Amino acid sequence: MEIETVTPPRIAPWLPPAEERTAPAAWRLRIRMADHPGMLARIAIRMADLECNILGLTVLPVPGGVLDEVVVRPATGLTKEQLVRAIQDEGCECSAVADADVHELVDASAATLVAASRAVADPGRYADVLREVLAADLVTVVPLAEANPGRTEGGHRAVFTVDGVSALVARRRWAPFVQLELARAEALLGLLDTVRADVSRPAVATCADGTSIVLRQGLPGDADGVFALHERCSAETLFHRYHTGMRTVPRRWLHRLLVPPRGMSLLAVCGREVIGLGQLIPGTGEIAEISLLVDDAWQRKGVGTALMARLAVIAAARGHRRLMAVSLPGRNGILRTAVRAGLAPDQPEEEGLLRITIPPNLLPRVPGGA
Length: 370
Prior knowledge:
This protein is α+β, with helices and mostly antiparallel strands.
């Protein structure tokens, strides 16, 4: 018995109609218009007449009006020039039209948070993340001296200082950067600055003799270590710190030293031994008060400098711009320590009050201050 083999007919793969295959995915437009009721509706009606489908809308406030960023799926055969003329006929200015990807249609806040999480996981991607947040054509890392925000070649530019040494330069040909975008980018970089400083975790410092010490926040469980620190300190060291003739610290003070009201303590630890104690206590306005105590055997080795530098980083992350310390008149040890820590102290006042300015590279970014 013969069995006839039947070959099924070949089915061609499905393809969309030719006109759909040639249609662009999306266009991104920036339309400057007067902030009057009904203006956006008129633009939307005009786009509907041209069979454009509006996929996304972002309103960017600018001086003298608003700048609407609209993402549309254009009708087949419609040109960018025709769409621009239609917008101009409504009395608005279309400052830019660029091809867009529908995958970019994500809420700006959500997109920024996603980008931040990637940069936290990999700090080497700062430039890529900033390019995504700004919808820039290119973001490069250059030495700060070469950033020159006044340059205009290569399209529109925005410059962001990274660490006081280098800068991120964003370039975009299709549209200028507006203030809201710059503020969003500054807020993102400010978050990444705080993460990079990592103020909530211990830090490692190296003393002048090469010894490594750990700087970490003091906790109530450190009471015995802090008490032992005071026991080892000379009467002169304690007098410089507390301005009284005490020989040791009463145990009832230990909790307040480690957990000051509204403030924090910072310990310098070598092995299991507490060798230094710093405090940061918020004052009025943007000022915070600091104090230091270093074991006699560890003085002039950089322990106090490390404590003060770290306290300045923590203070800046908490929104303080100046520090204040009190020393005995005629004693300039705290002044020298501040200078070695890279801070900017004023000359001490007559009563021993020292005001210290935190340098700009440690201060948090101010949104919109690009």
